[in-house]
Amino acid sequence: MEKKRFTIPFMPVHITTEAAIAMIFIGVLFILAGVLPKEMMEPADKLVTPIGLKPEWYYLWAYVILEMVPNKLMGILIPGVMVGALFAVPWLERSKERRPAKRPIAVGVFTAMMLVVAALTYYGATIQIGG
Amino acid sequence: MNWLEERLPGIGKVAEDIAEHPVPSHTLNIFYCLGGLTLLAFLVQCVTGLFLALYYKPTPEAAFASVQMITNEVRFGATIRSLHHWAANLMILLVFLHMLRVYYTGSFKKPRELNWLAGCFLLVLSLGLAFTGYLLPYEQLSYWASVIGAETAGSLPVVGATMKIMMQGGIKVTAEMLSRFYVLHVMILPLVTIGFLVAHFIMIRVQGISDPM
């Protein structure tokens, strides 16, 4: 486990690399904002419920579970438990080993969960919900 | 520097400590930049959010019109709003990717369990900021997304009914919902987020960046 640690100084090597990446990020943001600006949509109408309502992409996985599970309480509890499990990761996986290849079960379970979330997001993005 | 040192003894040591702090070379890797970029996205949100707050009016009657004004009339308003929109989306994507990096490199393991926990809170806070901010333009989608959010919270056992009333400002959706989401979005959640960010960074400094695998 004892490895030689190669270090670089914070000034100026690390800080300039960080600054370069930060500038690229800000550039990408401006390009996105310029090419795909946020447009106005219709104002809120309390009397008309829109058909086929979908949340933003980061909530889609949970929304699909909510819509798919017939029992509403279970539909909330399942995403809740999934997020709760995330908080508990360091206590669910206690081994000292860090290389993914040496902890196949934990990495397998975690990867499977992430793939489920990704698949649900894809599913939610492609299907028509409700209506 | 001498001028400062005379007035603030010890400041030279602090500056030296920051400048000469050695960083492990394996962190010069794009996967190790994701956390820093998430912070940058958050800072962009603070700055653009401040400008949007100058013109935004958090009442059901005026909200949509004020966002319309920001988009169509205010100088650079459309740009600032688009930047706020994209930085919000990228922040969530980045916080998620940062979590994947920390998980797969096993960096959350002893002694860094508490920092993983702080990171989880920051993920949930990011989602909360996105959820509360989504209502503010008071568009059809934003209004009904919040209604569904309140309904969903309402079907929780024990706390559900109270949570729904607290979110809606009444048994039914009231005008209070917008002010509550506004206060959450611009005051409470950002302050809590900054608190967790500070804890996150202090822990990194105390524990050091994890060794290469």
UniProtKB/TrEMBL annotation, chain A:
<dbReference type="GO" id="GO:0046872">
    <property type="term" value="F:metal ion binding"/>
</dbReference>
<keyword id="KW-0812">Transmembrane</keyword>
<keyword id="KW-0813">Transport</keyword>
<keyword id="KW-0249">Electron transport</keyword>
<dbReference type="GO" id="GO:0009055">
    <property type="term" value="F:electron transfer activity"/>
</dbReference>
<dbReference type="Pfam" id="PF00032">
    <property type="entry name" value="Cytochrom_B_C"/>
</dbReference>
<dbReference type="GO" id="GO:0016020">
    <property type="term" value="C:membrane"/>
</dbReference>
<dbReference type="GO" id="GO:0016491">
    <property type="term" value="F:oxidoreductase activity"/>
</dbReference>
<feature type="transmembrane region" description="Helical">
    <location>
        <begin position="73"/>
        <end position="92"/>
    </location>
</feature>
<feature type="transmembrane region" description="Helical">
    <location>
        <begin position="12"/>
        <end position="36"/>
    </location>
</feature>
<feature type="transmembrane region" description="Helical">
    <location>
        <begin position="104"/>
        <end position="125"/>
    </location>
</feature>
<keyword id="KW-0349">Heme</keyword>
<protein>
    <submittedName>
        <fullName>Cytochrome b subunit of the bc complex</fullName>
    </submittedName>
</protein>
<keyword id="KW-1133">Transmembrane helix</keyword>
<keyword id="KW-0479">Metal-binding</keyword>
<keyword id="KW-0408">Iron</keyword>
<feature type="domain" description="Cytochrome b/b6 C-terminal region profile">
    <location>
        <begin position="1"/>
        <end position="131"/>
    </location>
</feature>
<dbReference type="InterPro" id="IPR027387">
    <property type="entry name" value="Cytb/b6-like_sf"/>
</dbReference>
<dbReference type="InterPro" id="IPR005798">
    <property type="entry name" value="Cyt_b/b6_C"/>
</dbReference>
<keyword id="KW-0472">Membrane</keyword>
<dbReference type="InterPro" id="IPR036150">
    <property type="entry name" value="Cyt_b/b6_C_sf"/>
</dbReference>
